[in-house]
Write a structure and sequence with these properties.
With about 130 residues, the protein is mainly β. The protein is built from no helices and eleven strands.
């Protein structure tokens, strides 16, 4: 069983930055066996995929996807040795306000999806509020 814990949320002014962290733990695992996604859910809205990062391929490359509205502002990265995935969020906008979740699924392929249904493990979420 994999446990995920998010941190790094908070209140920030428009144009500001935050870095979210997702730390994975469990009995025994290699984070590189998992695809990781970041999702968000605002009040009254469905949960949406923000970004995802695949397993590292044999050539050490990863596949990354972003929601169109965050491209150029958000950056996802993973440090398997630290069992951590990050979401760097720059130029934040009020519409980025939401609870942010990380999610994981153990896979054998080298791509990733922004569909919540394709993930098995979820963290508890961290609140991000962008407001002046």
């Amino acid at each position: 069983q994999l446990q995920l814990v998010e941190s790094g949320g908070g209140l920030v002014q428009p144009g500001g930055s935050l870095r979210l962290s997702c730390v994975a733990s469990g009995f025994t695992f290699d984070l590189d066996d998992y695809v990781i996604g970041w999702f968000r859910q605002a009040p009254g809205k469905e949960r949406e995929g923000v970004s995802c990062i695949s397993r590292r391929s044999v050539s050490s490359s990863v596949s990354i996807n972003y929601l169109d509205s965050v491209k150029g502002r958000f950056t996802i990265s993973r440090d398997n040795a630290k069992h951590t995935v990050y979401l760097q969020m720059n130029s934040l906008k009020p519409e980025d306000t939401a609870v942010y979740y990380c999610a994981a699924r153990r896979v054998t392929y080298y791509s990733c999806s922004g569909r919540p249904a394709e993930y098995d493990y979820w963290g508890q979420g961290t609140q991000v509020t962008v407001s002046s």
